[in-house]
Design goal:
This protein is of the alpha/beta class. Helices cover 46% and strands 14% of the residues. 39% of the residues are buried. It comes from Virgibacillus indicus.
Length: 249
């Protein structure tokens, strides 16, 4: 049986809760505790992120940064440090630093630096006067989600339906994606990807349909392609080396 552990996702916008939701949900299924803390979430999307987290069994929190104003100040780092010290996770999941620089969502780059600095400072004698009730907590293991160069895949086949259900709850994201895909792909490409796409009645349905096709392709690729062993898998890049008592098959 898998070891019970605390896993914390430090995310930026909220969709990350679902993107690595398989690993988070599987940890809960195995008796662990999964948490997520999001920096930026609008009033419109926050309730949907909470609903998605509830589907996955993830305990949610928000650090209430302001879009366009994320910085690497001591005050910003303190917000991350507080979350880490309060939850005391065994594992942290966050965005891959390399990926964050290619992602043109606002604040991704500053957020990534703030998150990594916060993780580093959480285990040191930083801001103890600001949070005297919390002791330093060091993180032994960090995994970067959706990396360009993964070195780890997690079998999420048994929680695949939960992950799809959680994604469908993110209505604002699905509507945005439906409009984006409709503008960026030709009609013939969309029909090839989602047969009957043109007959879908609104952007929510269109975004949901394309995400379902896209997510399935990505997760099958990581799970089954290149001699994989799983129907669906999430990809991660572990920070640093794996430290093993002996080689694992």
């Amino acid at each position: 049986m898998a070891e019970r552990q605390k896993v914390l996702l430090l995310g930026v916008y909220g969709m990350e809760v679902v993107e690595c939701g398989g690993a988070l949900a599987k940890n809960v299924k195995n008796g662990g505790e999964s948490y997520a803390s999001i920096m930026l979430s609008s009033n419109k999307s926050r309730e949907q992120v909470l609903q998605a987290a509830n589907v996955l069994g993830v305990k949610m929190g928000f650090t209430d940064f302001e879009m366009g104003h994320v910085d690497t100040s001591a005050e910003s780092k303190e917000k991350i440090v507080r979350v880490v010290r309060e939850i005391k996770p065994d594992i942290i999941i966050t965005q891959d630093p390399e990926h964050s620089f290619h992602d043109l969502d606002p604040d991704r780059r500053q957020a990534m630096i703030t998150i990594l600095e916060g993780i580093a400072l959480a285990g040191r004698d930083f801001a103890l006067d600001k949070m005297p009730e919390l002791k330093p907590h060091s993180i032994p293991t960090i995994y970067y989600m959706t990396p360009h160069q993964p070195n780890t895949v997690v079998d999420v086949s048994d929680v695949w339906d939960l992950k799809n259900e959680a994604m469908s709850v993110l209505k604002s994201q699905m509507e945005f994606s439906g409009q984006h895909f409709e503008n960026s792909l030709s009609e013939s490409n969309l029909e090839s990807l989602v047969p009957g796409f043109s007959k879908l009645s609104n952007h929510y349905e269109k975004g949901q349909a394309v995400h379902k096709a896209l997510d399935q392709a990505v997760h099958v690729y990581h799970g089954l392609a290149t001699h994989g062993h799983y129907a669906f898998a999430e990809a991660f890049r572990r920070e640093g080396n794996f430290h093993l008592d002996e080689l694992l098959k």
